[in-house]
Design a protein that fits this description.
Layout lengths: L1 H17 L3 E2 L2 E2 L4 H10 L5 E2 L15 H5 L4 E8 L2 E9 L6 E8 L2 H13 L5 E7 L2 E7 L4 E8 L2 E8 H26 L4
Antiparallel strand pairs: 1-2, 3-4, 4-5, 5-6, 6-10, 7-8, 8-9, 9-10
Length: about 190
């Protein structure tokens, strides 16, 4: 019975990871330690979001430990499809799991058509296009839990890879945390009124 249960759990884990989105060396579901190891192995100049990484080259080993302690965004600059791009990795707040990647190009017009061809080669399940005053967004559903959005506005292109299951879980965690904070403030300040 234990062997059957173990085999079933293994199949579920493999099936769950099989539908992870991938971009370059990144895969949704990676924890922060794996992200750091991949950055180190590939000498990617990964920095906590907010640091200017334009002139930095390679992975900075001194910043590895502080990254794990609370950051949910990391970024680096790279040349993709012949243009400079900024890559941002977004982690879930609680577990620090990779749930979303944004790639942005300031010269998006040159890249937009190439990205559309790349995404269409993945045989998306569906796609929807919406228009805003200054641009357009196309959402491609890749499988039951992953999607890629292309946002094009004022010459800037942003490709957003999303693991919708992890993002939904992260929103619930943030909502619970916010409610807990609100409740503690109410409890603390109630006697003051």
């Amino acid at each position: 019975m234990k062997n059957i249960l173990f085999s079933l759990m293994t199949i579920i884990i493999i099936a769950t990871n099989a539908n992870a989105f991938t971009f370059d060396v990144w895969e949704s579901g990676m924890d922060v330690d794996t992200v750091m190891m991949v950055a180190l192995k590939n000498d990617i100049p990964l920095r906590k979001s907010g640091y200017a990484a334009i002139d930095w080259e390679g992975f900075d080993k001194e910043y590895k430990v502080p990254y794990r302690k609370g950051a949910t965004e990391y970024g680096y600059s790279v040349n993709l499809l012949g243009e400079n791009a900024r890559v941002k990795l977004f982690m879930t707040e609680k577990e620090k799991i990779l749930m979303k990647i944004e790639i942005s190009w300031a010269k998006g017009k040159e890249v937009k058509e190439m990205m559309e061809k790349i995404i269409l080669a993945k045989n998306p399940i569906s796609s929807t296009k919406s228009y805003k005053m200054l641009g357009e967004t196309t959402r491609y559903k890749i499988n039951y839990k992953d999607e890629i959005e292309l946002e094009y506005q004022l010459g800037i292109l942003i490709a957003i890879y999303k693991d919708t299951v992890l993002m939904k879980k992260d929103r619930k965690t943030k909502k619970k945390k916010k409610q807990k904070t609100k409740n503690s403030v109410i409890t603390k300040d109630a006697s003051r009124f």
